[in-house]
Amino acid sequence: MTTDSGDFQGGLDVLAALAPMPLAWAMGFAARIRQELLAAAERRAADARRAQALEAAQATQRERARIAGEMHDVVAHSLTLLVVHAETLRARGGELPDWARVQADGLAAAGRQSSGELRDLLRMLRDPADAAPLQPVPASVSWRPCWTVTVPREERPG
User: Fold this and answer.
1) Measured CA distances, 66 to 36, 58, 60, 73, 151 (Å)
2) How far apart are CA 122 and CA 65, in angstroms?
3) pLDDT digit string (tens) for 80-96?
4) What burial class does residue 131 get, using C-beta atoms within 10 Å of its C-beta: 0-12 exposed, 13-18 middle, 19+ buried?
5) How many other C-beta atoms can be found within 10 angstroms of the C-beta atom of residue 110?
6) Exposed site from 10, 46, 122, 155, fewest CB < 10 Å?
7) Three-state secondary structure call for residue 144
8) What is the per-residue pLDDT for 128?
């Protein structure tokens, strides 16, 4: 490159060479600030998603605990009362016919087993991570429903 004295204009040429530098620096600075703001917004969004997921999990756990409490209050207390009545019948077994003693024994056993299963279910409902896994009802349990009681002819009234 040759420089003629006519081509060089002095300060304007220096200004023309240096003028884009601050503009380039300002554009780079603005781009970096924009990237930092975008990264901060993404972090806030991720934090908000985590907080929302945590809130949903806590709400789910509170609802599970509420349902478990309601089930305990209603079902477990009623089942306990049923077992107490069945045991009372068993204690007065001498006054009952044979078929009634057998049914009272079956009712008490079924009630105790159901109470244990309900306890396991409520434990799992309250805290699924802490609960023991539920086991199926063993096949060896003989279920005799109480509503199919047959009364021998000689013990029927009238």
Assistant:
1) 44, 12, 10, 11, 44
2) 9
3) 898 898 888 888 878 88
4) middle
5) 20
6) 10
7) coil
8) 74
Taking the CA of residue 49 as centre, how many other CA atoms within 13 Å lie in the half-sphere pointing to its CB?
6
Which own/partner contact pairs does 148-151 have at CB distance under 8 Å and 24+ positions apart?
149/99, 149/100, 149/103, 150/99, 151/97, 151/99
Rounded Cα distance, 108 and 94, in Å: 17
Residue-wise pLDDT for 109-146, tens only, equals: 898 898 888 888 888 888 777 655 555 555 444 545 44
Six token digits for residue 146 = 């109480």
Alpha helices, DSSP H only, in 6-156? 11-18, 20-71, 77-91, 98-126
What's at 115, amino acid-wise?
A: S
CA 39 to chain centre: 32
What is the DSSP code (8-state) at residue 75? I
